[in-house]
From TrEMBL:
SUPFAM superfamilies in UniProt: L domain-like (SSF52058), NAD(P)-binding Rossmann-fold domains (SSF51735)
Cross-referenced Gene3D superfamilies: NAD(P)-binding Rossmann-like Domain (3.40.50.720), Ribonuclease Inhibitor (3.80.10.10)
Signal peptide annotation: none
InterPro entries per UniProt: LRR_dom_sf, LRR_R13L4/SHOC2-like, NAD(P)-bd_dom_sf, Sc_DH/Rdtase_CS, SDR_fam
Residues of the Disease resistance R13L4/SHOC-2-like LRR domain: 123-202
Identification of the protein by name: Disease resistance R13L4/SHOC-2-like LRR domain-containing protein
Keywords attached to this entry: Oxidoreductase, Repeat
Length: 544
């Protein structure tokens, strides 16, 4: 699996180098060069007898040409309103192998049943329904797609999986990320998938400690079934919400060694009852590192409000050699004054194991005073901080600073460049932080002045899809408030301006006209309160 991903990434990099692909408007995405896209669509429309056809959003396909269609991609469409892509068009492509219905509306049960039991059932290998409006129980007919290798149901409203899903003996990847209402998974639906290599349940609310008897009296999926029933499992992403589930998980050598992504978040039903999520004195917390540290690439740690963490939180990344993304959320306690990340234990002249952490996020951690980096972080690219209103300092430890000072520099930015050479963003605002510091120094010497920073109204609207951006802007607002306090009495003010929706590439990226209208309406109260630019979406120059 890793080899295949590596080959795919190498191919993408090669296409980027030759300018056939370009960087997308959102981080970690790519897009076709306009000329390449136009040529591909022209060939797709006129050369069906020479190439495998691709049915895209802006294609109109004659019925006699549909037998050439091998791939269908619809994104952000409404099947009930767009006549070009009514169900008959999709279902009549009998040779289709790939069906991507991403963010598609109007996917009613009869359509899904037709896809699963119709002419494509013996050819379809990839089915992606992520972010579509699929709701309720997945139709039992899904078990008829005998050739299916990849099924993505991420961010859908499915509440249960059918037992017949277990008939997909060739299925290799099942993606159930952020299935926020998925409550029923029969044992037979998963335990029989003997070819399954990847099971991704990141952010899923499925309760591994619920009543093992489902609503129909059948047995529900348990952690033990993942160990016993999936012999080819290579990669597992999972969310656990009770100390009992976590302890059971840690007792399985197979599950610990196969887990690449782990989220620990107490379930709502047990918020105010039972033992601490991380065990007495954090015992289970430290066992996660010792038992799973060698396999984890993504780790999310959520606070337990019923049992606040006491003392500093120190995470040694040498115990997590493969970890790339680390998130710390909702550790709200005045008894946890600092978070310490310990990186590679070496100086620039020495060698040691390299810490692979590339992104660190900390959100909603009121009570925290300091984030401290100890050692080197050669792969760290981004730090996101948000809603940490008591945060006062982001610090390198004194030992590192002293070692660097001996080499001739005492500049904070220089320390970051040396020990975090790939760091591009702090709070999405490394530049803002450095500008704050420089502006404050100059204005203090000048005797008076104003510092104004631009943030965003998304901090108040909490719009889905803007998590990292919102967290970064919230962090800038927190810095502004702290700076205002630090400059009190010096005739220097510090404030931030939070515009509503602005017509930028990022704002329009991935949005339909309906999405744009909805986003504007969410900010209408803000616009009215500012008494400015009614009825239009402002452009950047309006604020320049």
């Amino acid at each position: 699996m890793n080899d295949a991903r590596g080959a795919g990434q190498a191919l993408i990099n090669k296409l980027l180098d030759t300018c056939l692909l370009e960087s997308g408007t959102v981080s970690c995405t790519v897009k076709m060069h306009d000329a390449v896209r136009d040529m591909a669509l022209w060939i797709n429309r006129h050369e069906y007898n020479k190439v495998d056809g691709f049915l895209a959003r802006d294609s109109i396909i004659r019925r006699e040409d549909r037998e050439h269609i091998k791939r269908i991609h619809l994104w952000d469409n409404d099947l009930e309103e767009d006549a070009r892509f009514n169900p008959d068009v999709i279902l009549s492509c009998s040779s289709n192998r790939t069906l991507l219905l991403i963010s598609v509306r109007g996917l009613r049960p009869p359509i899904l049943q037709g896809i699963a039991s119709g002419s494509m059932k013996s050819t379809l290998r990839v089915l992606d329904l992520s972010r579509s409006d699929t709701r309720g129980e997945l139709p039992a007919e899904v078990g008829l797609m005998a050739e299916l290798r990849f099924l993505d149901l991420s961010s859908t409203g499915i509440t249960s999986l059918p037992k017949e899903l277990g008939n997909l003996v060739k299925l290799r990847q099942l993606i159930l990320r952020y299935t926020l209402v998925l409550e029923q998974i029969p044992q037979e639906a998963i335990a029989g998938l003997r070819s399954l290599q990847v099971l991704d349940m990141s952010g899923s609310v499925y309760d591994w400690e619920a009543d093992p008897r489902g609503e129909d009296g059948g047995r529900q999926l348990e952690l033990g079934d993942l160990e016993a029933g999936l012999p080819r499992l290579e990669e597992l992403h999972i969310q656990l919400g009770t100390p009992r589930a976590l302890e059971r998980f840690l007792n399985s050598d197979k599950l610990c060694s196969r887990t690449r992504g782990l989220s620990l978040k107490r379930r709502h039903r047990s918020q105010n009852e039972g033992p601490p999520l991380y065990g007495e004195g954090g015992s289970l917390f430290w066992r996660v590192f010792s038992r799973m540290g060698g396999s984890l690439k993504t780790l999310e740690l959520h606070g337990d409000d019923a049992h606040p963490w006491e003392g500093g939180l120190r995470i040694s990344l040498d115990q997590l050699p493969l970890l790339e993304d680390l998130g710390v959320f909702s550790f709200r306690s005045e008894r946890m004054p600092e978070v310490v990340l310990v990186g590679s234990n070496f100086t620039p002249r020495s060698s040691s194991s390299i810490v692979r952490l590339s992104e660190f996020t900390m959100f909603n951690c009121d009570g925290l005073k300091m984030l401290k980096l100890v050692g080197a972080f050669p792969c760290l690219q981004e730090i996101y901080l948000g809603n940490c209103s008591t945060m006062e300092e982001l610090a390198l430890d004194e030992g590192v600073a002293a070692g660097i000072a001996e080499e001739g520099t005492q500049d904070d930015a220089g320390l970051l460049d040396r020990y975090c050479p790939m760091l591009r963003k702090i709070l999405n605002t490394r530049g803002a932080f450095l500008c704050f510091r420089e502006a404050a120094n100059r204005l203090v010497h000048g005797g008076r002045g104003q510092i104004i920073n631009v943030t965003s109204s998304v901090v108040g609207s909490l719009r889905p899809g803007y998590a990292a951006y919102t967290a970064s802007k919230a962090a800038v607002e927190a810095m502004t408030k702290i700076l205002a306090k630090e400059l009190r009495g010096m005739q220097i003010t510090a404030n931030s301006v939070a515009p509503g929706p602005v017509a930028t590439d990022m704002f329009f990226a991935g949005k339909s006209e309906e999405d744009v209208r909805r986003s504007v309406n969410e900010g209408i109260e803000y616009l009215e309160s500012m008494n400015t630019l009614h009825g239009i979406i402002p452009r950047p120059e309006h604020y320049a």
